[in-house]
Amino acid sequence: AEGSAPRRIVSLGEEVIQQIAAGEVIQRPVNAIKELLDNALDAGSSQINIAVKEGGKKMLSVQDNGHGIEREDLPLLCKRHATSKLRSFEDLDNLSTLGFRGEALASISTVAHLTVITKAAAAVAGLKICYKNTVLEPPGPLPCAAQNGTTFIVDDLFYSNEQRRKALGSAAEEYARILDLLGRYAISRPDVGFSCKKQGERRPDLHTVAGTSAQDIIRVVYGASIAQSLLPIELEEPGDKTITASADTSFSFTASGFVSCTHYSGRKGIFIIRINGHIVQCRALEHSLEAAYFSYARNKPFIYLDVKLPGDQVDVNVHPTKHEVVFLHQEEILSCISDAVECLLQGPIRCHCMRSIA
Ligand code: ADP
Ligand code: MG
């Protein structure tokens, strides 16, 4: 019948391909912030400052004091699949960086106006450059005053995509997402100072000082009542017992962090999970923790867990936003962790809540 003839197959143009790929990586301001935070941490920064306008929809900037970018690398900075972090596919097994795909800046420069100011410690002056659709805008790098490190300024996110813009929440909602993410990063990296504020305001809405204890950062970010109710948790598998299991069922990991005691009564569960340095969502782990918790305390927990697995046991490459990870022996590992949490909740409670009651 008419209309049922097959349509011809054609290859998409480079620009369309880039737009589609960028849309997967950057869906809202917080995704851009996450990528820029990861880059700042990969650059060895000890201080990272964020400023936003309209929840990041109008403008967001991330300033770091990391190693900066060499002038010769600037033409490749936003090129897709260009990275300083990965050389071969095998490198993925023992990756020490958060980024590796060379996709974030390509995506950001495709969906927004991107300006970069950078200065490597050895350079005499800073350089300022704008990027559009992954390439340098003429006239190229211009000298400017700058401190050591790099600042990324992202203006008019989704300027050419009205649909995407309309799908975003209010400025307050998008800003809340950014603060939530930043709190998670701050807790997992007490060695780095973070700040976040609305552009033009003096007071940051989140501010942590490098070198503060994780527990103090939790107090700053989530408040005193959570910070007071924390029990430290620490586990290592296999512990000191000898493993007899065959090679293909043996696994190892460490986990450390804090869980709230049975006296804490949060209205919603807060799970901050970090696996091999990546802040991720791991619904399976959240569910098993919630279940473990529910048998001892009829309320929702606060849990921060920093899990380390051998590199060849995890795949961080399954999701475009690297939001979810997949790891081997998931079931065994989850039950080890939830057993340990149950054990902790059963045992003599040593949190601040009890001390103040006793
Ligand atoms: P990836 O992080 O996967 O390598 P990106 O697109 O996020 O890809 O970044 C591309 C490259 O730009 C990085 O490999 C790094 O060399 C450089 N870069 C990005 N952000 C920074 C930064 N804040 N400081 C120094 N170099 C950076
Ligand atoms: Mg990156």
What does this structure look like?
- It is found in: Nucleus.
- Its main location: nucleus.
- This is DNA mismatch repair protein S5 domain-containing protein.
- Keywords: DNA damage, DNA repair, Nucleus.
- The chain is built from 10 helices and 16 strands.
- The chain has 358 residues and is α+β, with helices and mostly antiparallel strands.
- The chain has 2 domains: 204 residues, Heat Shock Protein 90; 135 residues, 2-Layer Sandwich (Ribosomal Protein S5, domain 2), CATH 3.30.230.
- The strands form 3 sheets. Strands 1, 2, 3, 4, 5, 6, 7, 8 and 9 form a 9-stranded mixed sheet that branches.
- Strand 3 and strand 4 form a beta hairpin.
- The longest helix is centred in the middle third of the chain and has 18 residues.
- About 2% of the residues have low confidence.
Distinct ligand kinds: adenosine-5'-diphosphate, magnesium ion
The SSE order reads HHEEHEEEEEHHEEHHEEEEHEEEHH
The CATH superfamily label of the largest domain reads Histidine kinase-like ATPase, C-terminal domain
Task: Estimate the mean pLDDT confidence.
Answer: 90
Unreliable residue runs: 243-248
Determine and state the CATH class of the largest domain: Alpha Beta
CATH topology of the largest domain: Heat Shock Protein 90
Percent of sequence in beta strands:
15-25%
* Overall number of strands: 16
**Sheet with most strands:** 9 strands, mixed
The rough form would be described as: globular
Helix content: 25-40%
Distance N to C terminus? 83 Å
User: How large is the radius of gyration?
Assistant: 23 Å
CATH architecture of the largest domain: 2-Layer Sandwich
How many domains? Answer: 2
Discrete helix count: 10
| Helix/strand/pairing category | alpha+beta
